[in-house]
Design brief:
Layout: H1 18-21, E1 24-30, E2 33-38, E3 43-49, E4 51-54, E5 62-65, E6 70-73, E7 79-82, H2 84-108, E8 121-125, E9 128-132, E10 138-144, E11 146-147, E12 156-159, E13 165-168, E14 174-177, E15 191-195, H3 202-210, E16 212-215, E17 218-221, E18 234-238, E19 244-246, E20 252-253, E21 260-265, E22 268-273, E23 278-283, E24 285-291, E25 296-301, E26 306-311, E27 317-323, E28 325-328, E29 333-338, E30 341-346, E31 352-357, E32 361-362, E33 369-374, E34 377-383, E35 388-392, E36 395-398, E37 405-410, E38 413-418, E39 423-429, E40 431-434
Length: 435
């Protein structure tokens, strides 16, 4: 029932491996100071730095602070520059890294239609707002009382001379009246708008306390899957013609995704696509995890308290309401609980990879590897076939595998093991970060 997702998997164990190829493995912290160890386990830089950050150029150099002065150094400690010169180099690298990231993102979105107005900038002249192009030429004369958003997809939201909230196109022509002045720029054909209500909102506080916001207006991320705790924002969505496709008057509307969004009304929860049509009809559900990469949503049937999975692209229920809980641990694997049994399942084949007891923890995968453990003991590293690579009952905590290495804690200190369970760095540090 599940389409293959292998082409979409970014193998975290292989990405950003430039430092590993140079024999540089991890930052290590001892007595509050940072140092560096190599892939052979040897100390490359003694822990002596208040700050130690790898170069964005990924050339095996580092930016460090012994006290207050920033230095750019080689791995042998040779100082390349210090003070302002080091800061200038660090800023230059950060800008170059940012530009490379933006270019990659733009290349991945090269199918997206572009408009001349994409480059327009809002300017204020004598209290009125207009727009200039990339060359600084006035393209829309100053006439608006306020500008609410930048141009995106040939639309910008402004307050016109009459005080109305409107959308304009790249010529400055009013296209339609906007439903609110609290509105976002268009993104893939939809703009989020919000209406304000005067009441105390526990949901918003909960979203801040539990995790990281999906956008400026809500949603919670947990790895690749996020737990859709509603944030209390009364949001809706309009298309480029000004049609309200998802109404803010619903009881609850979650932040939009590539597939659409969750909508709750009159106590029932469903999933609406980006055209405003119900893909999953409203039902008596509680929410589980949602993986917005592969479009899988866990819903809990309130009638029997069992969890199932829906494909939000098709609306088809791909796993019936039979499990006590379901959790996504990678793009292709999930953990299900039924009674006292916990299973790791390959979603592409439906095969059970691992069966264990309910009290065992199964961490999220990092590439093809994950940890199985009982609270803070009995750690085992397994691969995505369920094969146990090694087990160690002295490990009390473990971080994800990266480049074939994993930081693990034993007897209160952190060290590093390889995929065979061999200690590359003995447990002796307060903290470790694999490069």
């Amino acid at each position: 029932a599940f389409k293959s997702l292998q082409a979409n998997i970014d193998d975290a164990t292989e990405s950003n491996s430039a430092f590993i190829k140079l024999g540089q493995l991890a930052k290590v912290k001892q007595n509050g100071k940072w140092g560096l160890v190599g892939t052979n386990g040897q100390v490359l830089l003694d822990p002596q730095y208040k700050e130690l950050d790898p170069s964005y150029a990924e050339d095996g150099t580092y930016f460090v602070k012994l006290k207050k002065t920033l230095e750019h150094i080689k791995v042998d400690g040779t100082v390349l520059s210090s003070g302002k010169d080091a800061l200038d180099e660090q800023v230059k690298q950060i800008i170059n890294h940012h530009d490379e990231t933006v270019n990659k993102n733009q290349n991945s979105l090269n199918h997206k239609e572009t408009y001349a107005s994409d480059s327009y900038t809002a300017v204020s002249v004598k209290g009125k707002w207009g727009f200039t192009d990339a060359s600084g030429n006035t393209v829309i004369a100053p006439q608006f009382k306020e500008v609410y958003t930048k141009f995106s997809e040939d639309r910008a939201f402004v307050k016109d001379a009459k005080g109305k909230n409107v959308a304009i196109d790249g010529t400055g022509k009013t296209v339609f009246e906007a439903p609110s002045n609290d509105i976002d720029a268009y993104d893939d054909g939809l703009a989020e708008f919000r209406r304000h209500i005067s009441k105390f909102n526990l949901g918003g506080l909960l979203s801040m306390a539990v995790g990281i916001t999906l956008s400026n207006h809500g949603g919670i991320y947990y790895g690749d899957a996020w737990n859709p705790v509603y944030d209390g924002v009364k949001r809706g969505y309009i298309n480029r013609d000004g049609k309200i496709v998802i109404d803010s008057k619903n009881d609850a509307v979650w932040p939009i995704t590539a597939y659409g969004t969750l909508v709750k009304n009159q106590g029932l929860i469903g999933f609406v696509n980006r055209e405003g049509n119900y893909i999953i009809q409203p039902g008596n559900y509680d929410l589980g995890e949602f993986s917005d990469i592969n479009g899988l949503l866990v819903l809990i049937n309130k009638d029997n308290k069992k969890a199932g999975v829906f494909d939000v692209d098709t609306g088809k229920q791909v796993i019936p309401f039979t499990y006590d809980s379901i959790r996504f641990v990678s793009l292709t694997n999930m953990v299900v609980v039924s009674g006292d049994t916990k299973q790791l399942i390959d979603m592409t084949t439906g095969n059970v990879i691992l069966t264990t007891s309910k009290d065992m923890g199964i961490n999220k995968f990092s590439g093809p590897y994950t940890w199985v453990h009982k609270t803070s003991s009995d750690y085992k590293l397994i691969d995505d076939s369920g094969k146990v690579l090694f087990s160690d009952n002295t490990i009390t905590s473990a971080m994800p595998v990266k480049h074939g290495f994993a930081p693990v804690k034993s007897q209160g200190k952190w060290g590093i093991v390889n995929l065979r369970g061999e200690w590359v760095v003995q447990p002796q540090y307060e903290d470790i970060e694999i490069l």
